[in-house]
Amino acid sequence: MSFTSYLKKLVKNLFQIYRLGNIDVSLDLDLEDSLFFDMDTAIPLGMIINELVSDSLKHAFSSKAKGEIQIKLHREENKKDSFKSAGFTPEFIDNGVGIPDNFEIEDLNSLGFQLVATLVDQLDGKFDLRRDNGMKFAMRFTLTEK
Questions:
Q1: pLDDT digits over 54-73, tens only?
Q2: Where are the alpha helices (DSSP H) in 56-144?
Q3: What is the DSSP letter of 135?
Q4: pTM (predicted TM-score)
């Protein structure tokens, strides 16, 4: 199964689990077709998306009648010397209530964000978290093949 197919099923299941009563949350998936990853990449990336979607559905839309979650995942291929590498730029965006102003990313007091940060490190990636008009989590990691 491709990671793209897995991700679509995962998010659909999370939406079913976290039914939000009267809140209407739409989903916009912008995913490259037929992405395949080995287990060392698929598991942490799937767990990151799971954590972000779950947190958003539980906390981001409590005071809004309508919301949106966007998930993007694309490849940027590079070829250097005899190595072929591909950079990946997953993004998670919601238009919910956002992250509280007193939440310091560096402190990572939240167990969920500790998990996300650890999984990003496991992928040798970097991430950026923005909190204007909801939340935007963007990360970048690179996979290299010989």
A1: 989 888 887 766 899 999 99
A2: 111-122
A3: E
A4: 0.88
pLDDT in tens, 58-112: 888 877 668 999 999 999 866 565 567 889 999 999 999 887 777 665 555 677 8
What is the amino acid identity at position 64?
K
| DSSP assignments along 109-129, one per residue | -SHHHHHHHHHHHHTT-EEEE
Number of domains within the chain: 1
- Spatial distance between the Cα atoms of 144 and 65, rounded to a whole number of angstroms: 44
User: CATH number for the domain including 92?
Assistant: 3.30.565.10
Structural domain boundaries enclosing 138: 3-145
| Residue 65 and residue 24 in contact, taking contact as beta carbons nearer than 8 Å | yes
d(CA 117, CA 92): 14
How many helices (H) does the chain have, and how many strands (E)?
3, 7
